[in-house]
Amino acid sequence: MTNGSFDVVVVGGGVIGAFIARELTKFQLSVCVLEAREDVGMGASGANSGIVHGGFDPVPGSLKARFNVEGCQMMRKVTSDLDVPFEMIGSMVVAHNMEEKEILKKLLKQGKENGVKGLQLLDSWELGGLEPSLGPNLKSALLSSESGVVCPHELTQGAMENAIHNGAVLYLSSPVTSIEREEDKTFVVHAGEHHLQARTVVNAAGIYADKLYEMAVECAVGDEIIEAHQQSFRIVPRSGEYMLLDKSEGMTVCHVVFRIPGEMSKGIIVTPTVDGNLLLGPSLNPRQDREDTSTTIPGMDQVCEGARRLVPEINLPAVIKAYTGLRATTDRADHDFIVGRTPVKGFYNAAGIESPGLTSSPAIGLYLAELIAADLEAKLNPNFDPKRKHLRFRDLSFEDQQELVAKDPSYGRIVCRCETITEGEVRDAIRRPCGARSVDGVKRRTRTGMGRCQGGFCSSHVVNILAEELGIDPAEVVQSTPGSYILTEKTKMKEAEQDV
Amino acid sequence: MFELKERYDLVVVGGGPAGLAVAVQAYDRGIKDILIVERKEKLGGILGQCIHTGFGVQIFGEELSGPEYAENFVDMVKERNISVVCGATVLSINQDQSIVITGSKCGVRRIGCGALVLSMGCRERSRGAINVPGTRPSGVFTAGLAQRYINLEGYKMGKDVVILGSGDIGLIMARRLALEGINVRMVCEIESFTNGLTRNIVQCLEDFNIPLRLSHTVTMIHGKERLTGVTVAKVDENKKPIPGTEELVECDTLLLSVGLIPENELTRRAGIRIDPVTGGPVVNEHMQTSLPWVFACGNVVHVHDLVDYVTMESCRAGDAAANYIYKQLPRFREEIPTCSAGEVRYVVPQVITAGDDAEGDLTLYFRVKKPVTNAVIEVSCGDWVFYRGKKLKMIPGEMEQVLIKAELRDTFDAIYQENINKGKMKIDQGGLLVIKKDSQRKGAAKTELTVSVYPEEK
């Protein structure tokens, strides 16, 4: 049990919570992040398109427009500081007929109004040269050259690791159950075994952000009460299903390719990932259960159909994985982000963060951190170190690889052959700040098992390394969540061997 | 450990049955300067975890277990003092006839090679490849991974198991799990026939009373943390689930035995031509790839049914690599493609040598798409048939072969040329078994050597 006291408690260890925490450590503030799940980035942060959007899509004047454009502009610096894979490959919205071409012109105008740079309308002949697999019947496309793709897992981990490196505290497996307020308006946040005093609380609870806000409303006092209730909102989860294709298909397109956006989403996209796979999705369907991330036949059919409309010859048999993310959409008419102060003094929202949330995350983090620092009159932290390093064997030159393995032989042993991940990297992923504690945790940090064999070869090695590093029996190693055991018991043979 | 040299006459990638046979064969042909690169800590490849018997009837004349079969070859490698580096992975094949390897003991090294043989084997298709919807709990394993856990790591992975796919690994794992006291609920097979060897159906399922559900597949995966069950449904002739036939089967483990794919990440990166049907490199009858100094054999080329055939194919590759090093194998030559028609799924080799370099008997290996009874097998080029044979029953699970006699090859060559030159050349049949076809079959191309299988017309 801990009874710590913090200037800021951030609830939610997704990409939004991680960036808020990281930006807060730029100030002389004590920061704690509470995450309900057993790892960071387990919600929508880990199951999305991995796209850095330009920002022509959100309605001008909305928070989405503002944070999208700012986030996109920050992305190069942030990913370079945090050593996160990011490729500015550009995106395209394509028009299949003349009506759609008119919409592109509106999007261009809207993008300029939002302050998006690098927008350009392409003619059909220019398009054919850039993206031959899109088929011959396209009329036009809107190119956004500052868009790109980023690894969403690493962006979350990078920000969180950097926050911890700069003094933030992270408690995992700590769902917030209630919030109280003391006489002096200090919050007491109860989360499992933790009971933390906090001058301010930030709501970055993703799909549960409405529930957390309700807890804050419950402890509103005096003048706060009416307005706090008025600003209540509900999260209405909507699922987005994705299909990931083998790296052999990664060159099918070389931009992020969209159709004309619909009212509720940007539709099915086809995009290379930053790791060289091809990603299709997301579908769009309401979902009742906030924990239900299953894939469905109608959802996958939607994805296939949408992808085929963009790339008629798409090689669907090359799918290696399908997964579902849940968008934390609010019930408000504009579906805009809810970011900033709330009527409950000291309680801040970063709620309703659906697409373009990943792109916006550094900007939302910066905005809230500056706001909170001003409210708490905090000074800058002179010791803030913006850098985080992640060693990737396969990205090194021959000479650097030689040097590394000579120094630490565990970097010479390949564990995951599909993605060329070494034992040294797996051990590092477990030993890092907020390190991996499960097979999926290792996977999200290193990409072991993300390749075409989907862990067929490497998972037994990863299980053994985890067991060794964590000092537990292989049968105690889990896939992801606490109940997701992999092995049950020793075979008779193994028991006999050990008895001897 | 011995010091690695900067160059070897022959480098073999993979120390499984294919790689070991290549090295032994090349050594016996006089190539002494050989290095085998193996990524595991031990030689023998996947055979090490195949503790059941049934290996070696063709090669050793007796039924051996996987480790025994491997050990025989490991002994031969040791007797010959062939260099081996274990725990080392090949990172790249380079145009300057070198490879880069990495290992915890050997470090990162560039090694030159006179010839290179790829024998990396294959991998299993995963859940993503068959796209089963549902949740993503733990408890879904490929059959080979489960086999590794039980036979090598000494751990069981569940109590109640459903197996999807009746390939040989699935069948063998059904028996292995039953022997370990694990309840195998059923084996589902989406096809209306099984892909496994008949002996495995009898010895692994029937002897253990494990039900085999043909034309059934898993349509949904349930469970949040650990698998709690799967939905099993009957499928129609297009392999689509039939509504109303769904049944929830409670289980904590799903094993997938849904096919093997040659492992050619490295091959692709080297720019070597890949056959989209087999998933392996395109090879000629010498097991030579589109990169002349690179050869390939075993499951990396196409998935074999018996390891004995892997050994035989690898001996040919070993011979050819030796010939290449001795400069007895021409570097540039004319090639004729082979192709499949009728019920034939693929043919290996995908190209054969033409012109003056064509010599010796030619064996064509192929598999059928679906079971065929009273099958007619034909090898033809345009209107000309070089081989016609019959077989009572052919199944996709078993590899078939036809032999084209050496004396036929010249004729074939001439016909090939004629077809190309549109009938300008006269063909001397010379009493050989070349017969003119009665009617033109669909799909039999004029400038390719076509292997076709049709049900006999009554």
Provide tags for this entry.
heterodimer; A: 500 residues; alpha+beta; FAD/NAD(P)-binding domain; D-Amino Acid Oxidase, Chain A, domain 2; eight-stranded mixed beta sheet; five-stranded antiparallel beta sheet; 22 strands; 33% helix; globular; B: 458 residues; alpha/beta; 3 domains; seven-stranded mixed beta sheet; 9 helices
Q: What features would you describe in this structure?
A:
The complex is a heterodimer of chains A (500) and B (458). Chain A is built from 14 helices and 22 strands. Chain A has helices at 15-24, 63-82, 98-114, 124-130, 152-165, 209-218, 224-230, 297-310, 357-375, 398-407, 423-431, 439-446, 459-470, 492-499, and strands at residues 5-11, 31-34, 51-52, 86-87, 91-95, 119-123, 140-144, 148-150, 169-171, 176-181, 187-191, 194-203, 238-245, 256-258, 269-272, 278-281, 285-286, 319-327, 338-341, 347-351, 414-416, 421-422. In chain A, a hairpin with a 5-residue loop joins strand 15 and strand 16. The longest helix of chain A is centred in the first third of the chain and has 20 residues, at 63-82. Chain B is built from nine helices and 28 strands. In chain B, helix 1 (17-28) packs parallel to helix 2 (66-79), helix 4 (143-153) packs across helix 5 and helix 5 (168-179) runs parallel beside helix 6 (198-205). Chain B starts with 6 loop residues before the first strand and ends with a strand. Chain B folds into three domains: 1-124 and 260-332, FAD/NAD(P)-binding domain (3-Layer(bba) Sandwich); 126-258, FAD/NAD(P)-binding domain, CATH 3.50.50.60; 333-458, no CATH class. In chain B, the strands form seven sheets. In chain B, strands 1, 2, 5, 6, 7, 8 and 19 form a seven-stranded mixed β-sheet that branches. In chain B, strands 22-20-28-24-25-27 form a six-stranded mixed β-sheet. Chain B is of the alpha/beta class and 458 residues long. The chains are: A alpha+beta (500), B alpha/beta (458).
